Protein: NADPH:quinone reductase-like Zn-dependent oxidoreductase
Amino acid sequence: MKVIELAAPRVDSLHSCTYSDPVPGPGDVLVRLRVASLNFLDIAVATGKYSLNNFPIIPVTDGAGEIADIGAPVADWKVGERVIPHFIPNWQDGRMPTADGGPRRGIDLPGSLAEYVVVPAFAGPHAGASIER
Structure:
């Protein structure tokens, strides 16, 4: 798949490259990303104003697309449904976690400057915390 990778905390380190297509594991969905939206955090990461030590990364926290594939035993989602992957995909409920509250898309996990991303597909009373319809 095509991605835009940020190799260092400088805008001039953004470059196009190719990664292997991700595959959803058990309890995950594969989202084909159609749009990405820059926000303050994305600019801070790309300009070195938000310190990271895990370069290279696929940046940009916000995006949207549709489900392209589903890992077993996910039953609450269908291929083709339009979704918005959550910035903190493992956050299910309650107050928003602090900066160390779990991996974040575009920072610790692959972000939205990619053709595809794998995210958890949680089910139950708080379904959709990882992806929203």
In short: The beta strands are 2-6, 14-18, 28-37, 62-70, 82-85, 116-120, 131-132. Residues 124-128 have pLDDT under 50 and may be disordered.
